[in-house]
Amino acid sequence: MSGQKFGVAGATALVIGHFSGMLDLIALPVWVGALVERLQFTPQNAGAVVTLFLVGAVLASLVLAPRFNRMNQRLAAGAGFSVAAGAFFVAAGRTGFAELALLHLVSGLAVGTALSMVHGTMGRATNPHRLFAMAGIALGLFAIVVLALLPQVMIAFGAPALFWAFGGIMAFAAIVAILFFPKVDRRAEQGWQAFNRATWFTILGISFMTFNQAMVFSFVEVIGRARGFEPGHVLAVLIALGFVNFLFPSPLAALLQTRISATAVTQAGPAVQAVLALVVTSATSIVLWAPAAATFVAVQIFTHTFAFGLLARLDPTGRAVAATPAMLMVGAALGPIVGGALGENFGYPALGIAAVIVSMISIGLFTKAKTVNLFEAKPA
Protein backbone atom coordinates (compact mmCIF):
# COMPACT_ATOMS: atom_id res chain seq x y z
CA MET A 1 0.00 0.00 0.00
CA SER A 2 1.45 3.36 -0.98
CA GLY A 3 1.33 6.21 1.48
CA GLN A 4 -0.73 9.35 1.27
CA LYS A 5 0.36 12.92 0.64
CA PHE A 6 -1.24 15.13 3.25
CA GLY A 7 0.00 18.55 2.15
CA VAL A 8 1.55 21.25 4.32
CA ALA A 9 -1.61 21.99 6.32
CA GLY A 10 -2.33 18.34 7.07
CA ALA A 11 1.27 17.55 8.02
CA THR A 12 1.40 20.65 10.24
CA ALA A 13 -1.80 19.58 11.99
CA LEU A 14 -0.24 16.20 12.73
CA VAL A 15 2.96 17.78 14.06
CA ILE A 16 0.96 20.12 16.32
CA GLY A 17 -1.14 17.20 17.51
CA HIS A 18 2.02 15.25 18.31
CA PHE A 19 3.76 17.84 20.46
CA SER A 20 0.51 18.84 22.19
CA GLY A 21 -0.42 15.26 23.01
CA MET A 22 3.10 14.41 24.20
CA LEU A 23 3.00 17.26 26.69
CA ASP A 24 3.51 14.92 29.62
CA LEU A 25 6.90 13.75 28.37
CA ILE A 26 8.34 17.26 28.49
CA ALA A 27 6.43 18.87 31.35
CA LEU A 28 6.48 16.01 33.85
CA PRO A 29 9.03 17.54 36.28
CA VAL A 30 7.22 20.90 36.31
CA TRP A 31 3.85 19.17 36.57
CA VAL A 32 4.73 17.04 39.60
CA GLY A 33 6.64 19.92 41.16
CA ALA A 34 3.61 22.21 40.96
CA LEU A 35 1.38 19.66 42.67
CA VAL A 36 3.89 19.17 45.48
CA GLU A 37 5.14 22.72 46.04
CA ARG A 38 2.07 24.80 45.23
CA LEU A 39 -0.84 22.51 46.11
CA GLN A 40 0.95 20.78 49.00
CA PHE A 41 0.36 17.27 47.66
CA THR A 42 2.58 14.54 49.01
CA PRO A 43 5.03 13.18 46.44
CA GLN A 44 3.03 9.95 46.37
CA ASN A 45 -0.27 11.73 45.70
CA ALA A 46 1.31 14.00 43.09
CA GLY A 47 2.77 10.97 41.34
CA ALA A 48 -0.57 9.19 41.52
CA VAL A 49 -2.42 12.12 39.90
CA VAL A 50 -0.02 12.32 36.96
CA THR A 51 0.07 8.52 36.67
CA LEU A 52 -3.72 8.53 36.26
CA PHE A 53 -3.28 10.83 33.26
CA LEU A 54 -0.76 8.40 31.78
CA VAL A 55 -2.94 5.38 32.54
CA GLY A 56 -5.89 7.05 30.82
CA ALA A 57 -3.80 7.73 27.72
CA VAL A 58 -2.51 4.15 27.62
CA LEU A 59 -6.00 2.67 27.99
CA ALA A 60 -7.46 4.86 25.25
CA SER A 61 -4.61 4.00 22.91
CA LEU A 62 -4.89 0.26 23.56
CA VAL A 63 -8.64 0.29 22.91
CA LEU A 64 -8.67 2.58 19.87
CA ALA A 65 -5.49 1.65 18.00
CA PRO A 66 -6.93 -1.63 16.65
CA ARG A 67 -10.05 0.29 15.55
CA PHE A 68 -8.15 3.13 13.90
CA ASN A 69 -9.37 2.39 10.36
CA ARG A 70 -13.01 2.26 11.44
CA MET A 71 -13.01 5.72 13.02
CA ASN A 72 -13.40 9.28 11.85
CA GLN A 73 -9.87 10.38 12.71
CA ARG A 74 -10.52 14.13 12.44
CA LEU A 75 -13.58 13.95 14.67
CA ALA A 76 -11.86 11.75 17.25
CA ALA A 77 -8.75 13.94 17.37
CA GLY A 78 -10.70 17.18 17.60
CA ALA A 79 -13.03 15.80 20.26
CA GLY A 80 -10.16 14.30 22.24
CA PHE A 81 -8.17 17.51 22.42
CA SER A 82 -11.36 19.48 23.18
CA VAL A 83 -12.29 17.26 26.13
CA ALA A 84 -8.71 17.41 27.42
CA ALA A 85 -8.79 21.22 27.22
CA GLY A 86 -12.05 21.33 29.15
CA ALA A 87 -10.73 18.99 31.84
CA PHE A 88 -7.59 21.08 32.35
CA PHE A 89 -9.57 24.32 32.45
CA VAL A 90 -11.79 22.83 35.17
CA ALA A 91 -8.70 21.56 37.01
CA ALA A 92 -7.40 25.14 37.24
CA GLY A 93 -10.14 25.85 39.77
CA ARG A 94 -9.69 22.71 41.86
CA THR A 95 -7.24 21.84 44.63
CA GLY A 96 -8.54 18.55 46.06
CA PHE A 97 -6.82 15.24 45.36
CA ALA A 98 -9.96 13.32 44.34
CA GLU A 99 -11.15 16.05 41.97
CA LEU A 100 -7.80 16.47 40.28
CA ALA A 101 -7.27 12.71 40.07
CA LEU A 102 -10.57 12.27 38.22
CA LEU A 103 -9.91 15.22 35.91
CA HIS A 104 -6.44 13.88 35.08
CA LEU A 105 -7.90 10.48 34.23
CA VAL A 106 -10.46 12.11 31.94
CA SER A 107 -7.85 14.28 30.26
CA GLY A 108 -5.57 11.26 29.83
CA LEU A 109 -8.30 9.25 28.12
CA ALA A 110 -9.03 12.22 25.86
CA VAL A 111 -5.39 12.87 24.96
CA GLY A 112 -4.79 9.17 24.33
CA THR A 113 -7.72 9.17 21.92
CA ALA A 114 -6.47 12.18 19.99
CA LEU A 115 -2.85 11.07 19.96
CA SER A 116 -3.74 7.62 18.63
CA MET A 117 -5.46 9.30 15.68
CA VAL A 118 -2.43 11.54 15.13
CA HIS A 119 0.11 8.71 15.15
CA GLY A 120 -2.07 6.34 13.17
CA THR A 121 -2.51 8.98 10.48
CA MET A 122 1.23 9.69 10.47
CA GLY A 123 1.75 6.01 9.75
CA ARG A 124 -0.31 6.37 6.58
CA ALA A 125 1.87 9.17 5.21
CA THR A 126 4.13 8.77 2.19
CA ASN A 127 7.17 8.98 4.46
CA PRO A 128 6.17 8.20 8.08
CA HIS A 129 9.78 8.20 9.26
CA ARG A 130 10.43 11.74 8.08
CA LEU A 131 7.11 13.05 9.36
CA PHE A 132 7.72 11.53 12.81
CA ALA A 133 11.22 13.04 12.79
CA MET A 134 9.79 16.48 12.00
CA ALA A 135 7.32 16.04 14.84
CA GLY A 136 10.22 15.15 17.12
CA ILE A 137 12.06 18.34 16.16
CA ALA A 138 8.94 20.38 16.93
CA LEU A 139 8.54 18.59 20.27
CA GLY A 140 12.12 19.43 21.18
CA LEU A 141 11.61 23.10 20.45
CA PHE A 142 8.29 23.05 22.30
CA ALA A 143 10.01 21.48 25.31
CA ILE A 144 12.55 24.30 25.52
CA VAL A 145 9.82 26.94 25.36
CA VAL A 146 7.52 25.19 27.86
CA LEU A 147 10.24 24.48 30.42
CA ALA A 148 11.50 28.04 30.17
CA LEU A 149 8.12 29.76 30.47
CA LEU A 150 5.94 27.58 32.72
CA PRO A 151 7.92 28.07 35.95
CA GLN A 152 7.92 31.84 35.41
CA VAL A 153 4.18 31.86 34.71
CA MET A 154 3.48 29.89 37.89
CA ILE A 155 5.61 32.27 39.94
CA ALA A 156 3.41 35.11 38.70
CA PHE A 157 -0.01 33.44 38.77
CA GLY A 158 0.25 30.33 40.94
CA ALA A 159 -0.57 26.68 40.30
CA PRO A 160 -3.77 27.32 38.29
CA ALA A 161 -1.61 28.84 35.56
CA LEU A 162 -0.17 25.38 34.87
CA PHE A 163 -3.59 23.96 34.06
CA TRP A 164 -4.66 27.06 32.13
CA ALA A 165 -1.55 26.65 30.01
CA PHE A 166 -2.19 22.95 29.46
CA GLY A 167 -5.81 23.67 28.58
CA GLY A 168 -4.79 26.40 26.14
CA ILE A 169 -2.35 24.06 24.39
CA MET A 170 -5.03 21.38 24.05
CA ALA A 171 -7.61 23.91 22.83
CA PHE A 172 -5.19 25.10 20.14
CA ALA A 173 -4.55 21.50 19.08
CA ALA A 174 -8.30 20.88 18.93
CA ILE A 175 -8.93 23.87 16.66
CA VAL A 176 -6.10 22.86 14.35
CA ALA A 177 -7.34 19.26 14.23
CA ILE A 178 -10.91 20.28 13.44
CA LEU A 179 -9.80 22.61 10.64
CA PHE A 180 -6.82 20.86 9.07
CA PHE A 181 -6.57 17.23 10.19
CA PRO A 182 -5.93 15.17 7.03
CA LYS A 183 -8.46 12.67 5.78
CA VAL A 184 -7.28 9.07 5.74
CA ASP A 185 -7.95 6.92 2.69
CA ARG A 186 -10.25 4.17 3.94
CA ARG A 187 -9.41 1.78 1.12
CA ALA A 188 -7.06 -0.27 3.27
CA GLU A 189 -6.74 -3.73 1.79
CA GLN A 190 -4.94 -4.95 4.89
CA GLY A 191 -7.26 -3.10 7.25
CA TRP A 192 -8.68 -6.16 8.95
CA GLN A 193 -5.65 -8.44 9.05
CA ALA A 194 -4.12 -9.30 12.40
CA PHE A 195 -0.65 -7.97 13.17
CA ASN A 196 2.10 -10.35 12.16
CA ARG A 197 4.66 -11.53 14.71
CA ALA A 198 7.33 -9.07 13.53
CA THR A 199 4.96 -6.19 14.32
CA TRP A 200 4.25 -7.48 17.83
CA PHE A 201 7.95 -8.04 18.57
CA THR A 202 8.73 -4.49 17.40
CA ILE A 203 5.95 -3.02 19.56
CA LEU A 204 7.23 -4.89 22.61
CA GLY A 205 10.82 -3.86 21.86
CA ILE A 206 9.85 -0.19 21.79
CA SER A 207 7.81 -0.54 24.98
CA PHE A 208 10.70 -2.09 26.93
CA MET A 209 13.11 0.55 25.66
CA THR A 210 10.71 3.33 26.67
CA PHE A 211 10.32 1.78 30.12
CA ASN A 212 14.11 1.72 30.45
CA GLN A 213 14.40 5.36 29.49
CA ALA A 214 11.75 6.43 32.01
CA MET A 215 13.21 4.29 34.80
CA VAL A 216 16.62 5.96 34.61
CA PHE A 217 15.82 9.45 33.36
CA SER A 218 13.27 10.09 36.13
CA PHE A 219 16.13 10.04 38.64
CA VAL A 220 18.86 11.86 36.71
CA GLU A 221 18.64 14.99 38.86
CA VAL A 222 18.39 12.98 42.09
CA ILE A 223 21.39 10.84 41.13
CA GLY A 224 23.46 13.91 40.25
CA ARG A 225 22.84 15.47 43.62
CA ALA A 226 23.42 12.17 45.43
CA ARG A 227 26.84 12.01 43.77
CA GLY A 228 27.66 15.40 45.29
CA PHE A 229 27.70 17.35 42.05
CA GLU A 230 27.04 21.09 42.30
CA PRO A 231 23.31 21.87 41.86
CA GLY A 232 24.22 24.44 39.22
CA HIS A 233 26.12 21.82 37.25
CA VAL A 234 23.22 19.40 37.43
CA LEU A 235 20.83 22.12 36.24
CA ALA A 236 23.19 22.96 33.39
CA VAL A 237 23.15 19.31 32.31
CA LEU A 238 19.34 19.29 32.25
CA ILE A 239 19.30 22.45 30.16
CA ALA A 240 21.88 20.96 27.82
CA LEU A 241 19.74 17.83 27.57
CA GLY A 242 16.85 19.91 26.28
CA PHE A 243 18.97 21.47 23.56
CA VAL A 244 20.55 18.13 22.63
CA ASN A 245 17.09 16.57 22.22
CA PHE A 246 16.05 19.45 19.97
CA LEU A 247 19.16 19.73 17.84
CA PHE A 248 20.37 16.20 17.24
CA PRO A 249 18.29 12.98 17.42
CA SER A 250 15.31 13.81 15.18
CA PRO A 251 17.22 15.82 12.55
CA LEU A 252 19.89 13.12 12.47
CA ALA A 253 17.26 10.40 12.13
CA ALA A 254 15.71 12.25 9.18
CA LEU A 255 19.11 12.73 7.54
CA LEU A 256 20.17 9.10 7.96
CA GLN A 257 16.85 7.49 7.02
CA THR A 258 18.13 5.99 3.76
CA ARG A 259 21.71 5.51 4.94
CA ILE A 260 21.21 3.24 7.95
CA SER A 261 19.06 0.13 8.30
CA ALA A 262 16.13 0.63 10.66
CA THR A 263 16.55 -2.89 12.05
CA ALA A 264 20.23 -2.20 12.78
CA VAL A 265 19.30 0.98 14.64
CA THR A 266 16.67 -0.79 16.74
CA GLN A 267 19.22 -3.42 17.72
CA ALA A 268 22.01 -0.94 18.51
CA GLY A 269 19.83 1.66 20.26
CA PRO A 270 19.09 -0.38 23.41
CA ALA A 271 22.77 -1.33 23.71
CA VAL A 272 23.86 2.32 23.65
CA GLN A 273 21.05 3.11 26.10
CA ALA A 274 22.39 0.45 28.50
CA VAL A 275 25.95 1.83 28.37
CA LEU A 276 24.77 5.37 29.06
CA ALA A 277 22.52 4.14 31.88
CA LEU A 278 25.49 2.47 33.56
CA VAL A 279 27.48 5.71 33.37
CA VAL A 280 24.58 7.86 34.61
CA THR A 281 23.88 5.61 37.59
CA SER A 282 27.46 4.78 38.55
CA ALA A 283 29.84 7.60 37.53
CA THR A 284 31.28 9.67 40.35
CA SER A 285 32.96 12.23 38.09
CA ILE A 286 30.95 15.05 36.56
CA VAL A 287 33.20 14.83 33.49
CA LEU A 288 31.87 11.33 32.75
CA TRP A 289 28.37 11.79 34.13
CA ALA A 290 27.38 15.01 32.35
CA PRO A 291 27.77 13.87 28.71
CA ALA A 292 25.99 10.57 29.42
CA ALA A 293 23.09 12.29 31.18
CA ALA A 294 22.78 14.98 28.50
CA THR A 295 22.55 12.44 25.65
CA PHE A 296 20.60 9.66 27.38
CA VAL A 297 17.12 10.63 26.15
CA ALA A 298 18.41 11.41 22.65
CA VAL A 299 19.18 7.73 22.08
CA GLN A 300 15.53 6.85 22.73
CA ILE A 301 14.27 9.58 20.39
CA PHE A 302 16.66 8.59 17.58
CA THR A 303 15.88 4.88 17.86
CA HIS A 304 12.13 5.36 18.13
CA THR A 305 12.04 7.43 14.94
CA PHE A 306 13.48 4.47 13.02
CA ALA A 307 11.19 2.07 14.88
CA PHE A 308 8.17 4.21 13.98
CA GLY A 309 9.06 4.04 10.29
CA LEU A 310 9.67 0.31 10.59
CA LEU A 311 6.28 -0.27 12.20
CA ALA A 312 4.58 1.82 9.51
CA ARG A 313 6.09 -0.51 6.90
CA LEU A 314 5.20 -3.67 8.79
CA ASP A 315 1.60 -2.50 9.19
CA PRO A 316 0.68 0.03 6.47
CA THR A 317 -2.87 0.41 7.86
CA GLY A 318 -1.64 2.73 10.63
CA ARG A 319 -3.06 0.63 13.47
CA ALA A 320 0.33 -0.37 14.90
CA VAL A 321 1.71 3.17 15.07
CA ALA A 322 -1.65 4.33 16.45
CA ALA A 323 -0.61 2.45 19.59
CA THR A 324 2.42 4.76 19.98
CA PRO A 325 0.89 6.55 23.01
CA ALA A 326 0.54 3.21 24.77
CA MET A 327 4.12 2.22 23.93
CA LEU A 328 5.48 5.52 25.23
CA MET A 329 3.27 6.23 28.20
CA VAL A 330 3.23 2.77 29.74
CA GLY A 331 6.97 3.24 30.20
CA ALA A 332 6.49 6.74 31.56
CA ALA A 333 3.96 5.36 34.06
CA LEU A 334 5.85 2.27 35.23
CA GLY A 335 9.48 3.35 34.89
CA PRO A 336 9.57 5.87 37.77
CA ILE A 337 7.85 3.43 40.15
CA VAL A 338 10.31 0.62 39.44
CA GLY A 339 13.27 3.00 39.41
CA GLY A 340 12.26 4.46 42.75
CA ALA A 341 11.88 1.03 44.33
CA LEU A 342 15.29 -0.10 43.06
CA GLY A 343 17.04 3.11 44.06
CA GLU A 344 15.51 3.20 47.53
CA ASN A 345 16.22 -0.44 48.36
CA PHE A 346 19.43 -1.24 46.48
CA GLY A 347 21.01 2.11 45.59
CA TYR A 348 21.05 3.93 42.28
CA PRO A 349 23.67 1.68 40.63
CA ALA A 350 20.96 -0.99 40.70
CA LEU A 351 19.09 1.07 38.09
CA GLY A 352 22.05 0.67 35.76
CA ILE A 353 22.09 -3.10 36.22
CA ALA A 354 18.34 -3.26 35.64
CA ALA A 355 18.74 -1.09 32.54
CA VAL A 356 21.25 -3.56 31.09
CA ILE A 357 18.82 -6.45 31.65
CA VAL A 358 15.91 -4.56 30.09
CA SER A 359 18.09 -3.49 27.16
CA MET A 360 19.00 -7.11 26.51
CA ILE A 361 15.28 -7.92 26.38
CA SER A 362 14.71 -5.07 23.91
CA ILE A 363 17.57 -6.22 21.69
CA GLY A 364 16.22 -9.77 21.76
CA LEU A 365 12.75 -8.60 20.75
CA PHE A 366 14.02 -6.38 17.92
CA THR A 367 16.29 -9.20 16.69
CA LYS A 368 13.39 -11.63 16.79
CA ALA A 369 11.29 -9.14 14.82
CA LYS A 370 13.99 -8.94 12.15
CA THR A 371 14.33 -12.73 11.94
CA VAL A 372 10.58 -13.35 11.82
CA ASN A 373 10.08 -10.61 9.22
CA LEU A 374 12.75 -12.05 6.95
CA PHE A 375 11.26 -15.53 7.29
CA GLU A 376 7.64 -14.46 6.77
CA ALA A 377 8.58 -12.23 3.82
CA LYS A 378 9.85 -15.23 1.83
CA PRO A 379 7.47 -16.45 -0.86
CA ALA A 380 5.67 -19.69 -0.12
Please give a handful of descriptors for the protein shown.
380 residues, mainly alpha, Growth Hormone, Chain: A, 2 domains, 16 helices, globular
Task: Describe how the helices and strands are arranged.
Blueprint: H1 7-21, H2 23-37, H3 43-64, H4 73-91, H5 97-122, H6 128-157, H7 160-180, H8 197-217, H9 220-226, H10 231-247, H11 249-255, H12 262-282, H13 286-314, H14 319-322, H15 324-346, H16 349-377
Helix pairs in contact: 1-5, 1-6, 1-7, 2-3, 2-6, 3-5, 3-15, 4-5, 4-7, 6-7, 6-10, 6-11, 6-13, 8-12, 8-13, 8-15, 8-16, 10-13, 11-13, 12-13, 12-16
Outline the structure in words.
The chain is mostly helical. The protein has two domains: 7-180, Growth Hormone, Chain: A, CATH 1.20.1250.20; 197-377, Up-down Bundle (Growth Hormone, Chain: A). It is built from 16 helices and no strands. The protein has helices at residues 7-21, 23-37, 43-64, 73-91, 97-122, 128-157, 160-180, 197-217, 220-226, 231-247, 249-255, 262-282, 286-314, 319-322, 324-346, 349-377. The mean pLDDT is 89.
Q: CATH class of the largest domain, anyone? A: Mainly Alpha
Helix content: over 70%
CATH superfamily of the largest domain, by name, is: MFS general substrate transporter like domains
Average pLDDT across residues?
89
Helix count from the secondary structure assignment: 16
The biggest beta sheet reads: none
By secondary-structure content and strand pairing, the structural class works out as mainly alpha
User: Shape, please?
Assistant: globular
* Rounded radius of gyration (Å): 20 Å
Number of DSSP E strands: 0
Q: CATH topology of the largest domain, what is it called?
A: Growth Hormone, Chain: A
Domains, number: 2
Parts with pLDDT < 50 across at least 5 consecutive residues = none
